Amino acid sequence: MAITDWPEGERPREKLLERGAEALTDAELLAIFLRVGVVGKSAVELARDLLARFGGLNRLFAAGQAEFVAFPGMGPAKYAQVQAVLEMARRTLGEEMARGDALNSPGAVRDWLRLKLAGLPHEVFMGVFLDVQNRVLATEELFRGSLMQTSVHPREVVKRALAHNAAGLILAHNHPSGVAEPSQADRWITGQLKTALALVDVQVIDHFIVAGSNGYSFAERGWL
């Protein structure tokens, strides 16, 4: 059955306008983005199939172009739309981070980090460099690969902090496994970085782990 044949209150677009976006399921939100389905499937059914294939929104939005367009009904135009939406969300959060004290709006920082890191198939280690007023100076990908296999080098992080004249640093990396709990390697490198950066008067404010839609804060656990 086509969505146009559904009761008006159950159609995703009308439901959103009447009850707000938070009332919609992931499939309904995605269906609004897709706009149309394919032969034999409504946009909602196509959205459900996409979510099942990729395992959720995080994995879907993190998919590369080749993987995305290989799904029936998707193509380069839809892939470009997804990337544009994600980049607009990142820039919106980036603007919010840059407007004031990053520590007074930790949600914006964490949401931005989730958008950058969630769903990636490999580990990425990032730094958010802050000035003395805790305003964001820069964000950088510092290392790529498993912390167990491609060691994070404290001296390189110190060099980047000095290059930005940073007073504080929020560390972040992702766990492609989806498990947010820090490993022994995570805890060890956090201690090493904290010690190295303290020598140049740079404070490690937090180390945030992104695992799908979940996150883990070292600061909230009292580990910094």
Any overview of this molecule?
- This protein is of the alpha+beta class and 224 residues long.
- It contains nine helices and five strands; from the N terminus they run H-H-H-H-H-H-H-E-E-H-E-H-E-E.
- The protein has helices at 12-19, 26-34, 43-54, 57-62, 65-69, 76-99, 106-117, 154-163, 184-198; strands at residues 124-130, 136-144, 168-174, 203-211, 214-217.
- A hairpin with a 5-residue loop joins strand 1 and strand 2.
- The radius of gyration is 20 Å and the shape is elongated.
Topology of this protein?
Layout: H1 12-19, H2 26-34, H3 43-54, H4 57-62, H5 65-69, H6 76-99, H7 106-117, E1 124-130, E2 136-144, H8 154-163, E3 168-174, H9 184-198, E4 203-211, E5 214-217
Parallel strand pairs: 3-4
Antiparallel strand pairs: 1-2, 1-3, 4-5
Helix pairs in contact: 2-3, 6-7, 8-9
What structural class is derived from the secondary structure elements?
alpha+beta
The CA-CA distance between the termini, in Å, is 55 Å
Number of helices: 9
Output the helix-strand order: HHHHHHHEEHEHEE
Annotation, overall tally of beta strands: 5
Strand content range: 15-25%
Question: How would you briefly describe this protein structure?
Answer:
A five-stranded mixed beta sheet has the order 2-1-3-4-5, sandwiched between helices. The protein is of the alpha+beta class and 224 residues long. The protein is 45% helix and 16% strand.
